[in-house]
Write a structure and sequence with these properties.
By secondary structure, the protein is mainly β. It has a domain of about 260 residues: YVTN repeat-like/Quinoprotein amine dehydrogenase (Methylamine Dehydrogenase, Chain H, 7 Propeller), CATH 2.130.10. It contains one helix and 34 strands. This is WD40-like repeat protein. Pfam families: PQQ_2.
Length: about 375
């Protein structure tokens, strides 16, 4: 692990006064934040203190093109949008107009979704490092080196950063210093993004195992074994943890009892993360179908069919569910009925999750752009 106080690589665009005004406004508006992948450490696809006010039309407000596909889900803090691109850069944008405030270059793809806390932005890169940069100017604060690429999106909890590595480890480092607190070898690659709930870290790996780890020590408390890799993030609702895998099943497990109590068979393998929202569970599969399930029984409530596979993890807000598809579109559905409210067509597959603000939504596409819709 290498610490660095001076960021030599940040490219700063615009005036310092404009940049600082944006960030200060952002930090004062925590209620409109979406600070990490799937919104919060429990990865339940919601974070707002109040339901967002979103227009019913899904009108495109702006797009910004990068030099590579965008598979990193955006984080939103106040009026600033953070996301990574396969061009190797992390971007900070003015959420109002899409202008670049700064960008920070790494040495490989960025698929990991950034997490924002205490004025810091933390993200992983396929160059094998996790970076912490200053949210206001993009300057490097610290970096942590693993043994392989980092696909997993970091989760922040209790002053610590948790993430998985393609080297098969789950790591816990200090958000302040970047120093390692612990690491635990799980086996094969960890593409899954950790979930933290009540001092327990939940994460899957390519061995087809869901692990429950002690957040303070990294010790494995229990595990569940399924028939295929778990590349999506788990989700938490009350005493339930939900996860899905390449075996084509969705699972619901009681945390207290450390046991799976139901499973649901989808039409194809599942690469995305479940959404626990407003008393229901939503998950997409590679047949292009989004399912709404009862979280306590696994019974199907409704399903919606897109025209291609779903790798995007759904988000929820204002009684709606948002999910991208490999047919180059973002779909907005009524959360109760599954009825299509609108569809935003773009130039490439939408594999990112959607970050929801008060009156707008942000998502990326493999066409190399990030979009803002109202």
């Amino acid at each position: 692990m290498h610490r660095k106080r001076k960021g030599l690589w940040a490219v700063i665009l615009g005036t310092a006064s404009t940049m600082m005004a944006l960030l200060l406004a952002g930090y004062c508006e925590a209620a409109t934040g979406w600070p990490q992948f799937m919104g919060n450490p429990s990865r339940n696809g919601t974070v707002l203190d109040k339901e967002p006010k979103l227009s019913p039309l899904g009108e495109l407000e702006w797009r910004l093109s990068t030099q590579g596909p965008v598979a990193s889900s955006p984080a939103l803090w106040g009026n600033v949008v953070f996301f990574g691109s396969k061009d190797g850069n992390l971007y900070a944008l003015d959420g109002t107009n899409g202008r670049t405030i700064w960008r920070f270059p790494t040495e490989n793809w960025i698929v990991s979704s950034p997490a924002v806390s205490e004025g810091k932005v933390i993200f992983g890169s396929y160059d094998g490092k996790v970076y912490c940069v200053n949210g206001s100017d993009g300057k490097l604060i610290w970096r942590f080196t693993t043994h392989n690429g980092v696909h997993s999106s970091p989760a922040i909890w209790n002053g610590k950063v948790f993430f998985g590595g393609i080297d098969g480890y789950v790591y816990c480092v200090s958000i302040k210093t970047g120093w390692q607190v612990w690491k635990t070898k799980l086996g094969r690659e960890v593409y899954s993004s950790p979930v933290i709930s009540e001092g327990i870290v939940f994460v899957g790996n390519n061995d087809g195992k869901l692990f429950a780890l002690d957040a303070e020590t990294g010790q494995v408390m229990w595990r569940a074994v399924i028939g295929g890799p778990i590349t999506g993030s788990p989700a938490i609702m009350g005493d339930m943890v939900f996860f899905a895998g390449w075996d084509g099943f969705v699972y619901g497990a009681r945390i207290k009892h450390r046991a799976v109590i139901w499973r649901f068979k989808a039409d194809a393998y599942i690469d995305s993360s479940p959404l626990a929202y407003d008393g229901k569970l939503y998950v997409g599969d590679m047949s292009g179908r989004l399912y709404c399930l009862d979280p306590y029984s696994g019974n199907l409530i409704w399903s919606f069919k897109t025209h291609s596979g779903i790798q995007s993890s759904p988000s929820g807000g204002a009684g709606r569910v948002y999910v991208g598809s490999n047919d180059d579109a973002l779909f907005c559905l009524d959360a109760k009925t599954g009825d299509l409210l609108w569809k935003a067509k773009v130039g490439g597959n939408v594999t990112t999750s959607t970050a929801l603000g008060d009156g707008f939504a942000f998502f990326g596409s493999l066409d190399g752009a990030i979009y803002k819709v109202r």
